[in-house]
Design brief:
This protein is an alpha/beta fold. The chain has five domains: 53 residues, no CATH class; 143 residues, von Willebrand factor, type A domain (Rossmann fold); 97 residues, Immunoglobulins (Immunoglobulin-like, Sandwich), CATH 2.60.40; 166 residues, Class I glutamine amidotransferase (GATase) domain (Rossmann fold), CATH 3.40.50.880; 60 residues, no CATH class. Helix content is 22%, strand content 33%. The protein contains twelve helices and 31 strands. A hairpin with a 2-residue loop joins β22 and β23.
Length: 603
């Protein structure tokens, strides 16, 4: 069979014979790279590109002209004066509003309130409506101002690379050196008439030494008017009128009036002046005080016998003195003050504690050998516990060798270490005296009874300090609540309820910008009075130049670089393309016309 097989023949063929078959098979296996010229496809690509650019947050830098102005509004007590209709603050706010409305729209404005403490009400913005709303909401408080601090704050918020302006709308009823002000500050005064004002500028109450129920009251009245003023001075003790007198003062004259009174229990004492006719500022015509004491202190003396302490503590009618030689931990909360005299106290967590020659068990300090005859080297004469106490001639025969308590305030130092120190932690207030009273001549010193009184006053000022319940408006008031509560409710003189939930012991209460009596749990807690000749003198003590009387409305343009985001514009274009795509998709006739035109152009 093999021999019969024919020989292969050579045939000449084209060199592209097999390449034609491969070329015909390739289009079916490879992707189609050429896309049809569809209009909707190009719209979708453009839409996707715009969305990506919008998400990328493209920014364009540009330089624009704008001015930075800080509006400072005086809201101190003198702005309540009614020599202008309806008062000075209303006129100042109206002038500030007119000034703001005439400024260019791109002006950056900020608002600062000038009160007891300066406050930034609105930061730089060109939102006029928001700033005007905050401006109209400002009210005058019964406080003295701090003009220097206000202007320092206003200048500090100006951008560092610009020359902004500070426009201070005020009545000028303060003492200020204009030469010390920066060039950026412009004071805008009010066109006031001759102001009339009588004021109580001092209201001091002190107990008579011979009897704790008798007090001596000093009332100082000042006439800040330019003419002689007649007035009536009245004193009220509770609901009873105890004193009334018709008086007169010459221009710029002040006079002190002293009155003795007897107070059996804690009562509101009010002094009032009634000018004839009524003056321009009413808030300084009244002053309040709370003489007398409404509570007695339960003081426990844990001692084997100490005649000096016992006799001194029993001399105060406000003290209920108890004596024990031992005390259980659960009994500690039943006393307002506990004195451990050479008896080791149990572990302490809360309370008012005095330790004489011993320390609580939970205060683990390295105790050394007793130190004989320590030499007194230094003591704090300005501390309330050592006020009017002279320790120069005191001798100590032996002291405890104990180091300084952590974060303690050392009142008396010696060559052997601290002898008197104060330590406070949470609800625990501890006074530690590092020697036994019988190992010293301290009880024989003249200053010992004074020290005990200072001790009682420091732990419980609401009982032993006659000035504790009387502060100036705007000052902080320290509250020592006897009962532990989750929240404390205080009612201010306007009958507004202030609830404090997250509180500390003691509590620092700072919302005291209203003059009058503040109450806690239905009982009078403290009084706040203006008592400021600085604010009661309604006459302007600042010399205003002619240029500063009218606000300079010429804009001081400053070039500032701002960045403009393109995202809003890109999103708007994306929405427009999306609408066009929707329209072309749902109207094929329009697409066909556009497609035929497009195919002709490509052809």
């Amino acid at each position: 069979v093999y021999l019969l097989k024919g020989r292969p023949r050579k045939v000449i063929v084209s060199s592209t014979l097999f390449w034609r078959r491969i070329r015909q098979a390739l289009p079916a296996q490879r992707p189609r790279w050429r896309l049809p010229p569809e209009l909707l496809l190009f719209l979708q690509i453009a839409l996707l590109t715009l969305l990506i650019m919008a998400l990328a947050q493209f920014l364009v830098s540009r330089k624009e002209k704008k001015e930075f102005i800080v509006i400072v509004m005086d809201t101190t007590a003198s702005m309540q004066a009614t020599d202008l209709i309806s008062n000075r603050l209303a006129v100042a706010k109206k002038r500030a509003q007119e000034f703001i409305e005439e400024l260019p729209k791109n002006t950056q404005l900020a608002l600062v309130q000038a009160g007891k403490r300066p406050q930034l009400i609105a930061n730089f913005s060109d939102e006029r409506s928001y700033l005007l709303i905050r401006l109209k909401a400002l009210t005058a408080a019964d406080v003295r101002g701090n003009e220097t601090a206000v202007l320092e704050l206003a200048n500090s918020i100006l951008p560092t690379q610009t020359q902004g302006r500070v426009i201070f709308f005020t009545d000028g009823a303060f003492d200020l050196d204009l030469d010390s002000l920066p060039q950026t500050v412009e004071l805008v005064s009010l066109d006031k008439k001759n102001s009339r004002n009588l004021a109580i500028t001092s209201f001091e109450l002190r107990p008579r030494t011979e009897d704790s129920e008798k007090y001596e009251l000093l009332v100082k009245v000042t006439n800040f008017s330019l003419q002689k003023e007649r007035f009536s001075l009245r004193l009220w003790l509770g609901e009873n009128l105890i004193f009334k007198s018709e008086l007169a003062l010459s221009s710029q004259e002040e006079k002190k009036y002293i009155h003795n009174l007897e107070v059996k229990e804690k009562t509101i004492l009010k002094a009032e002046i009634y000018p004839y006719p009524q003056d321009d500022l009413a808030i300084d015509n009244t002053a309040y005080a709370l003489p007398g004491f409404s509570e007695r202190l339960n003081v426990l003396l844990v001692s084997r016998g100490n005649l000096f302490l016992k006799a001194t503590l029993e001399s105060y009618p406000q003290v209920n003195l108890y004596q024990k030689q031992t005390i259980l931990p659960e009994e500690l909360s039943g006393y307002d003050l506990i004195i451990f005299d050479n008896i080791v106290p149990p572990p302490l967590k809360r309370g008012n504690i005095v330790c004489l020659g011993v320390l609580p068990l939970n205060l683990s300090l390295e105790e050394q050998d007793p130190q004989p005859n320590p030499i007194l080297t230094e003591w704090q004469t300005d501390h309330p516990l050592l006020r009017f106490v002279n320790l120069k001639n005191m001798n100590v025969r032996q002291s405890l060798g104990i180091e300084t308590l952590p974060e303690a305030d050392i009142l008396l130092r010696s060559s052997a270490g601290p002898l008197i120190q104060v330590w406070q932690s949470g609800g625990l207030r501890l006074l530690f005296i590092g020697f036994d009273l019988y190992y010293s001549d301290f009880p024989l010193q003249i200053g010992f009874p004074i020290f005990i009184f200072n001790l009682l006053q420091w732990f419980h000022p609401q009982v032993f300090d006659p000035t504790y319940s009387q502060i100036q408006t705007g000052e902080e008031f320290v509250i020592f609540p006897k009962a532990q509560k989750e929240e404390i409710t205080i009612v201010n003189p306007h009958n507004e309820i202030i609830t404090i939930e997250d509180r500390k012991d003691p509590l620092i209460f700072s919302e005291t910008t209203i003059a009058g009596v503040y109450t806690l749990d239905g009982k009078s807690l403290f009084t706040a009075n203006l008592l400021s000749a600085h604010e009661s003198n309604l006459l302007s003590r600042v010399t205003f130049s002619a240029a500063s009387r009218e606000v300079n409305r010429q804009v001081k343009n400053e070039y500032s670089e701002s960045k403009l985001s393109l995202s809003p514009m890109l999103i708007l274009l994306s929405c427009l393309l999306l609408f066009i795509e929707w329209y072309l998709y749902h109207f094929p006739a329009a697409i066909g016309k556009k497609k035929s035109k497009f195919s002709k152009r490509t052809a």
